[in-house]
Amino acid sequence: MSNPLPRMFAYFETGWGVPIDDNKLRQRLQRDGMCDKCILWCDVSVKGWFGQIIEAFKGTRDGFLGCKFQSQLGSGLHYDACDSHRDVLAFPPSKQQPDKRERRCLGCQGAVQLCEHIHISWDAIETHITNWQRLKPGDWKACFDHFDVECHDPSHDTRCTAEEAPTWPRARLQSAASNKNLVVLNLEWKPHSGLHAFTLTPDGRAPASELRSLFQRYRQGVADILLPSYPSNPLPEMACFGPTKCGCLHYEKGDNKRPSAADLSNHASFFFGDDRTCGCRGGHKYNRNHGYGQNGQRIDMGKHWPMGMCKSVCLVTTYQRDVLVCHKIDRNKIKPAHEWFHAMDPETYPRRKANYGLPLCKDKGCMNYYRRPKFFECSYEDFTFGFGFLHSLS
Q1: What's the pLDDT tens digit per position in 154-171?
Q2: At residue 94, what are phi and psi to the nearest 5 degrees?
Q3: pLDDT tens figures, 77-129
Q4: What would the pLDDT profile of 205-221 be if each residue is shown by its tens digit?
Q5: pTM listed for this prediction
Q6: 35: which residues sit within 8 A by CB, 6+ positions away?
């Protein structure tokens, strides 16, 4: 679950600062989901200029964490691959010296993960777009149609019958849903539950416990990559069937998610029935800022009837994630967007070390788990001396 409190960083201006009580509350909320190791890291004293800042605001260093690809002073280096400038932290440590030549930023070296077996590198996307723009300038449809990455590992194929198309995880280039001038990489997987996955009640409801077991299996692979779970929300799929949204699930006695009798009486159960003409007002969707190219994610639930089998309903869960690649109006050589940096798998690029950066945590139950994708609204374009504003959307 996202932290509802915005993360604010103070400018060095007399008389302006973060309210101490609010800052402490935000830090405590943030630390609630951390493991013991990361909590201990937050309390270790820091020397130098960064330590002086922490002391001045009577906080701990976890309260002053900003974008890991943007330095607080906004210092930049020339980016040789695209003949432009980027922040110094957008480069690997070996390329941060001013006299280094032939620099390639971390975005060019990293890759976005589709599944356990496939990564999509920036080089692959850049080469594809550059070649198609050379062959057919401005024909983005042709460019999109010819970029199709799938993983054919048998573990991903959950189709109900052999006659159906396999359910491979897939990566496509397309226009962003919110802005047709943005090119995004859309990652998608549509696993099927199978025809007899649920033991329906006489009134057509599916047991909530059986849905949880199904989603937990999905989360052992692709689902947890495309739409990560958080310690406070281990099964985000269940939000699609919220008790206040619909009455499609059956909750057993003692289930702490069991809806009230009033909630159940207000919602009929349509979703798991065999009537194709009825729909549920619940919508059965879950959205984390998807459609804007900001590393957003979403889940859509749908029904599926294999040919000739109308009585059994298969639940199709669609996971999607979109990452900004470039703008269609870009005339020069494209370069990785800032959102691309945050979407990359941390295992695919060199990680910098700094006393103000969170440690590399491999505890899946920690809010600082290193493979947990984060998407940010960073003020990376207009940094002056100070910290600017950062709103964490993850």
Answers
A1: 999 999 888 888 999 999
A2: -70, -15
A3: 555 555 566 666 777 665 555 555 567 788 888 999 999 999 999 999 999 99
A4: 889 999 999 999 999 99
A5: 0.78
A6: 361, 363, 365, 366, 368
* 3-state SS string for the chain: CCCCCCEECCCCCCCCCCCHHHHHHHHHHHHHCCCHHHHHHHHCCCCHHHHHHHHHCCCCHHHHCCCCCCCCCCCEEEECCCCEEEEHHHCCHHHCCCCCCCCCCHHHHCEEECCCCCEEEHHHHHHHHHHHHHHCCCCHHHHHHCCEEECCCHHHCCCCCCCCCCCCCEEEEEECCCCCCEEEEEEEECCECCCCCCCCCCCCCEEHHHHHHHHHHHCCCHHHHHCCCECCECCHHHHHHCCCCCCCEECCCCCCCCCCHHHHHHCCCCCCCCCCCCCCCCCCEEEEECCCCEEEEEEEEEEECCCCCCCCCEEEEEEEEEEEEEECCCCCCCCCCHHHHHHCCHHHCCCCCCCCCCCCECCCCCCCECCCCCCEEECCCCCCCCCCEEEECC
- The pLDDT score that the predictor gives to residue 319 is 97
- Cα torsion at 35, 289, 152, 341 (round to 10°)? -70
* Calpha distance 298→285 (Å, rounded): 7
Domain borders along the chain are 1-68+353-394, 206-323
